[in-house]
């Protein structure tokens, strides 16, 4: 039996490794040029789910809300050991803030049916809000443990875990069902398994009668899924007034690129005289 | 519901001590309230903290709605969120502010979800101003500024049709006013509407770690970056810090590499600092780091790469090898000290 787990993942632009490629001449970032990756802490959430499954058994469904290309992050989940994946995609979801996103995810979770544990990264590196997890928990009317550091004990009824607080950590206990937001400190996510990458090589394509080889390749592991489920607003039954831009109470008024203003910098020669003058000036000004 | 408009602050407490960020937010709420002709109120949960709450008046808080319940002595998500939701429903403030601490970031989204209202995370600046949308003009919109995309953009967020509008604010960002001990807040004890079933989390143990360094109050900081990741260079940076009486800080790569603890990290995921002097040693100056130190009074950057972004915000730039430059700095200091 084990636990029924849902891992919520997000495709994000890689804001942490900005290379010259993505920099514009005016010193701002060309966001469209940033590579799309699976949000780093969502990988920690997936890893934690896999470890729980290894420990006490269970089933892992990874879900993402996003455009069609977000299917890539679901494949990343399959390659690491998710049993099942669902893409939740609809034009109506565009422009969603955290509240509208949480609503949509809640309806998707309802459609999945029963669950014991929902896991997601503590925060995504594009917005850094850390809001969607707790908002989904509230919408589902379940408890939450945020900033997970370590699962200490877990069985089918309850979990004992360490989670981060500002100046240390707490050891807490909660019954299922429950939502966990996972930090990068919780674990070291595994790499994709070569075997699974091979097994899911053709997952995009519908398996049909004329592809004998694919069917043959999957024959020895019938537990693997053969296609990625996709749901839209109608199939999860979310009303367009509560999802996407329309369902978002927050609006973006203005976005400004952060431009580095060049200071009137004083160049200090790296010589003994130059450095001595600087240090003595700071001492004369009682700065040091 | 009060007949006067309210700007509300969630008062964070831990072991009966009011969090510093709550005082900062009361001061910021005062600045916002002035423009809205509103008053500053607090919402607090806990047990036996009435006196501490009255003292919030020193910072300009007029009234504190206080749910006194022994079970609320220590923070857990659901009962805290639920209690604040019922106070907000009763008082109907225009704006609610939370510290962007682990507590604030845990409960504020739950509260926003229950109230179906807008919430903006980690704001660095708040204003009251105009917002126009589809021909409609909101004269006193709550403008919430926050960095996004790893700090590469600054977004202004509004939620003009949301009641209330809520925001979390990083500790150390808003200015603390001088307290006026002649003012006290009126503390109104509110009935707790919680049942035992609301307490879903059992706290078994709380482990607090003494901070090894408190960078937020440091006047002189010497910070090491990826250019100082080898043991000899890092030892040299440390020696400079000790020599001139500075605190030692680091950029994220050094902390991630385990060379210094997270308490030493300056930047978006570390501490925000405003010292008189910041000496950046071998720090390239990625935006995430700059966000945490750009307001330093004087910045000296030492880097072997003349094109490093850190030089764009530095007041003094030294292009050179740390192993050559730092010994000269130490020698120059000792010569005159």
Report on this model:
The complex is a heterodimer of chains A (288) and B (337). Chain A has 288 residues and is an alpha/beta fold. The radius of gyration of chain A is 23 Å and the shape is globular. Chain A contains 8 helices and 13 strands. Chain A has a single domain (3-250), classed as 3-Layer(aba) Sandwich (Rossmann fold). Chain B is of the alpha/beta class. Chain B has helices at 20-36, 50-54, 77-91, 102-115, 231-244, 252-256, 287-290, 310-313, 322-336; strands at 6-11, 13-14, 17-18, 39-46, 63-68, 95-99, 119-123, 125-133, 136-148, 153-158, 165-169, 186-190, 201-208, 220-224, 247-250, 277-281, 298-303, 316-319. In chain B, a hairpin with a 2-residue loop joins strand 2 and strand 3 (17-18). In chain B, helix 3 (77-91) crosses helix 4 and helix 5 (231-244) runs parallel beside helix 9 (322-336). Chain B is elongated. Chain B starts with 5 loop residues before the first strand and ends with a helix. The model of chain B has no long low-confidence stretch (mean pLDDT 93). At the A-B interface, helix 3, helix 4, strand 7, strand 8 and strand 9 of A face helix 3, helix 4, strand 7, strand 9 and strand 10 of B.
Total beta-strand segments of chain A: 13
Unreliable sequence segments of chain A = 205-221
What is the CATH class name of the largest domain in chain B?
Alpha Beta
Give the overall shape of chain B, derived from the CA principal axes. Answer: elongated
In terms of per-residue confidence, which ranges of chain B show pLDDT below 50 for 5 or more consecutive residues? none
Largest interface between protein chains, with number of residues from each side: A-B, 77 and 89 residues
CATH architecture of the largest domain in chain B: 3-Layer(aba) Sandwich
Side-by-side strand order of the widest sheet of chain A:
9-8-7-10-6-1-4-5-11
